[in-house]
Structures are given as C-alpha cells and as structure tokens.
Write a structure and sequence with these properties.
alpha/beta, 4-stranded antiparallel β-sheet, globular, 14 strands
C-alpha cells in the first residue's frame, strides 16, 4: 500500500497533531481552548467537598475534572448521584480553567446494557437522555464509564461490541454538534482481556479514550499489585497501535485493596491515605515490591492475617516510563483525594 512509503515517525507525529487539535477544541462560554495539562481526574461524589478543594489546589496541572455524578438506570433514565450538578463546583472549576466533563456510570443487571446497545431505537432514546444531562449545566462534555459491557457472554460479545461502537459514534457526533467533548472510559485490552471494546472505532470518534489501567489484582480475586510496568507495556502496545497516543488517557490508581489471606471474601478498598495510616498503625515496614514497583505490607488483626497492596508516588514514578515509551502524556487519576500528595510532583516531572 502507498501508505507504507510514509515513515512511521511521520505518521505518528501527524496522528498526535490531529488528535491534539480535536481534543482541545474550544468550549462555548470559555475563553478559547484550555491549555495543555498533565493530569485529569475523577471527582468522587462521596468525598465531594474535599476532592473539590484538592482540585483547586492543583489547578495548574489539571486539564479536566470528571465528577462521578450520574448513573444510567435504563435507556431513557439517567439519574443524578448525591451532589450532582452542583453549580458552585462547576463554576469554581471553570474559573480555574479546568474543563468539567461529568462521568455517567451504570450498574445494570446482566444483559440490560447489551439490550440497549443492540437496539437502534433504544440507542437513540439513550442518546437523547444523555444529551439532556449535558444540556442541564455548563458542562464541557460527557465521560461514559459503562462497565457491565465488559463481561458480555461469548455468544453475544461481537454484537455488543459493534452496538457500543455505533452508540459512541452517534453520541460523539451529537455532542460535537453542540461543541461538547466526548470521552469514553474502557478497561484494558490485552491478550486475554478487553475484547468487547472496539478501540479503533472508539479512538477515532472520541476526544479522549481513558484506559482504567488498574485492578490487575482486584477485590474478588487473590492479592497482588494493582498494576505493573510490564502490564502497562502490554496495554499500551495494544492501545497505541489502534488509537493516536494524544487521544489516550492512562488511568492511574491512587488506592489499593486489603485482602484477608486465604479467604475468598471480597477485599476491602483502601485509598493511599487509608493504606498509609493503617501501615503506620500496625507498624509495618514500608516495602516497595521490586517487580511491580508498588508498595505492600502484611499485618494481623486478632488471628486473621491481612495483606495490603496499593499505589503511591514512588510506584507511580516507576510506572511513568512505560507511558513515555509509547508517547502517552495524558493521565487520569482515580481518584481525587485518594492520592499520595507527592504524586502531583511525580506527574509534573514525569511527563
């Protein structure tokens, strides 16, 4: 093909330029496009005020805040979570030059989301419901975090993947017609995971594709690191082959899990702040795992042994070289006010 006569580096540079132009389009009511930023972050509604103050304190580094504010209940019903749409927060973030792109999540029963995505009529209804959300405030767009799509059964995953790609394509077109941003949040694609996501299509139509690069070891599984540099390498090799690096945001964890050793019970979620406070309380030594570059410790509560794996600024610094290798500069933090405060310096130095 004639395309191959162009050097790979030239193609990469062109892709980055085009994606950057799309992703920083001017927003109505704002003084031009936002300046380049190093970090975006999700703002949890259950810690809203503290997380908002945290965002203001680091406004010079933040490009976009996505308040975790909305939940899809059905094709036609999208409801607000506690504190959703608080104008003081929207206005305060805008005053600092930060885009506000709220997240819409869902926890639908098995099969319910697939039924919406594979029906043209119900997809259209759902797009109208989402547009009503974006019109309800001075938002700069929407971020879709639809995760029940991921465990779609074998017999249906191709139809669901195609339906979701069509849905996002149509939604992004409608959002762009309103001069709004269109973000999509996905789980990692590796050799064994993430097949339901059509990265190429999603990356072509969305302004940002956010990869949740965490939960390598999760609450329902056995203990271990939340992420590793080797895993990041696998994730980014796949993602950057299909999506321009400037459109990608790599999701970084600021949390961990506390497992009961030998138990099949769900692990307990801990923020970095929780984990460090617990480590000091139980007088466990600080240990950075040499393979995963993530901190961990063990302790006993009565006769019950626990192991905790989490992420901090030292671990984040060790993971950033994988992003640089693939030309990915954009990060998104899960979540505001969970994090080691020093992570902000590492993100500023490490981009």
């Amino acid at each position: 093909m004639a395309r191959r006569r162009i050097t790979r580096s030239a193609l990469s540079a062109l892709a980055v330029l085009l994606a950057t132009t799309t992703a920083t389009a001017a927003v109505p009511g704002r003084a031009g496009a936002p300046p380049p930023r190093t970090v975006s972050a999700w703002l949890p509604y259950w810690d809203q005020e503290a997380a908002y103050r945290n965002a203001l304190a680091h406004a010079e580094q933040i490009r976009t805040i996505s308040p975790f504010w909305y939940e899809t209940k059905s094709a036609t019903r999208v409801t607000g979570l506690p504190g959703a749409g608080e104008r003081r927060i929207v206005d305060g973030l805008h005053a600092k030059g930060i885009q506000v792109v709220p997240t819409v999540m869902e926890q639908l029963r098995p099969g319910a989301l697939a039924a919406v995505l594979t029906s043209p009529g119900r997809r259209a209804e759902h797009i109208e419901a989402l547009l009503a959300v974006v019109r309800s405030r001075a938002y700069d767009g929407l971020d879709l975090d639809y995760e029940t799509i991921a465990p779609t059964p074998n017999a249906k995953y191709r139809a669901v993947r195609a339906g979701y790609a069509t849905f996002v394509t149509d939604l992004c077109a409608r959002l762009h017609a309103l001069d709004k941003q269109c973000f999509v949040t996905v789980t990692p694609r590796t050799r064994t995971t993430g097949r339901v996501w059509d990265y190429r299509t999603l990356g072509a139509v969305a302004d940002r594709m956010r990869i949740m690069a965490y939960n390598l070891h999760h609450a329902e599984g056995g203990p271990g690191p939340i992420a590793t540099p080797q895993w990041y390498d696998e994730i980014l090799a796949t993602a950057t082959a299909q999506v321009p690096p400037a459109k990608l945001e790599m999701g970084l964890p600021a949390y961990g899990w506390d497992w009961v050793v030998g138990s099949k019970d769900r692990a307990h979620h801990v923020t970095w702040k929780d984990a460090e406070a617990l480590r000091r309380k139980v007088k466990a030594p600080y240990t950075l795992d040499p393979a995963s570059r993530t901190p961990h410790f063990t302790y006993e509560e009565g006769r019950i042994r626990h192991t905790v794996w989490y992420q901090d600024a030292r671990g984040t610094a060790a993971h950033l070289p994988a992003l640089r290798t693939y030309g990915v500069r954009n990060t998104v933090l899960w979540a505001l006010n969970f994090e080691d405060p020093d992570v902000w310096r590492q993100l500023a130095d490490g981009q």
